[in-house]
Amino acid sequence: MSATIGYLGPKGTFTKLAVDAAFNGEHKESYATIPECIDAVEHDEIDIAVVPLENAIEGTVQLTVDYLVHQVRLPIVAEIVVPIQQHLLVQPTFQGGLGDITEVHSHSHAIAQCHQYLHQSLPEAKIQYTTSTGKAAEIVSKSDLPIAAIGNKLAAEVYGLKLLEENIHDYSNNHTRFVVLCKEEKKLKIKHPVSIEKTSMLISLPSDQAGALHQVLSAFAWRKMSLSKIESRPMKTGLGNYFFIIDVDQPYDDVLFPGVRGELEALGCNVTIMGTYPVYKLTI
Predict the structure, then answer these.
(1) In this structure, are strands 48-55 and 175-182 parallel, antiparallel, or unpaired?
(2) Where are the domains of the chain?
(3) Is the distance from CB of 65 to CB of 233 less than 8 angstroms?
(4) For residue 43, what are the CA distances in angstroms to 24, 38, 182, 183?
(5) How much is the pLDDT for 240?
(6) What integer pLDDT is reported at residue 213 of this predicted model?
(7) Please, how many CA atoms are within 13 Å of residue 251, restricted to the half-sphere of its CB?
(8) Whole-number Cα distances in Å, 187 to 3, 15, 132, 183
(9) Is the pLDDT of residue 47 over 70?
(10) 222: which residues sit within 8 A by CB, 6+ positions away?
(11) How do residues 96-124 score in pLDDT, each as one tens digit?
(12) Cβ neighbours around 151 below 10 Å, total
């Protein structure tokens, strides 16, 4: 029986692009927000959620990280890395130039990825933030005003828009990491080669111990474990209280990781394994 996969919608989002490229034949449900998508797995409405985690230009999608840490602890079972190309989308009947566009609609991350382009080419246009790039395209498709959306070619196809200008993102190496969340281990039907196996850890430090972060990193360093990301986020319990997300570029094993965990817990740290999972790098 195929799984039901939820994604940040509506149709035309980059998350939908990632889901379509990675999964074939499964039933797919769109959700208006990242929390709604994650909640749907928690409440057994769907089997799998795919949500954005990090963009190479704009950085971490903080809503995803904070919701997984503070609200719903779902394990990460896979990661999908997708190249991102942002385009300026308008109604097919639009015959004006860039100077005629009064508003640009898109998700905050997409706007940030095109900041210099907007500053130089559309300085007078008002920026309108939406819940997704797909939603921005939908808004433009229903409007008779001279407005535009930032989105992908799928959004243009779905909502009948034309590409006024292509590849307007500020940096060429634009990729987004999407995480696949599931309550239980499932054999995912992703027919792409695995580029690497990773393990993500959530670590909170003792508040009254000097040099704790150095000791945490040393636990990985002397074991020669490669870390691809270290990020701090507020615990939301008061100023100066943080947790750390650490990505280790290897799968969980029965020797190194238990040793790290024991060493960190002896320091007074709290350690949670957020997932050990394959990473798929897709070309779209």
Answers:
(1) antiparallel
(2) 4-84+174-182, 87-165, 194-278
(3) yes
(4) 24, 9, 11, 10
(5) 67
(6) 82
(7) 11
(8) 10, 20, 29, 13
(9) yes
(10) none
(11) 999 999 999 999 989 999 999 999 999 99
(12) 33
Fold assignment, 87-165: D-Maltodextrin-Binding Protein; domain 2 (3.40.190)
Separation CA 135–CA 151 (nearest Å) = 9
Calpha distance 157→54 (Å, rounded): 25
φ and ψ at residue 77, rounded to 5 degrees:
-110, -10
Class level of CATH domain 194-278: alpha beta
* Topology alike, domains 4-84+174-182 and 87-165: yes
Q: Exposed/middle/buried for 257, CB within 10 Å: 0-12, 13-18, 19+?
A: buried
Query: What pLDDT is attached to residue 128?
Result: 97
Arch. (CATH architecture) of 4-84+174-182: 3-Layer(aba) Sandwich (3.40)
In a 13 Å sphere around the CA of 210, the CA atoms on its Cβ side amount to: 0
pTM of the model: 0.86
Tell me the β-bridge partners of 169. Answer: none
The H-or-E segment that residue 182 falls in is strand 175-182
Evaluate whether 223 touches 259 at the Cβ level (below 8 Å). Answer: yes
CA distances (Å), origin 283, targets 86, 169, 175, 193, 280 = 15, 18, 10, 11, 10
Instruction: For residue range 241-276, list pLDDT tens digits in order.
Output: 778 999 999 999 999 999 999 999 998 889 999 999
- Mean pLDDT of the 65-77 span: 92
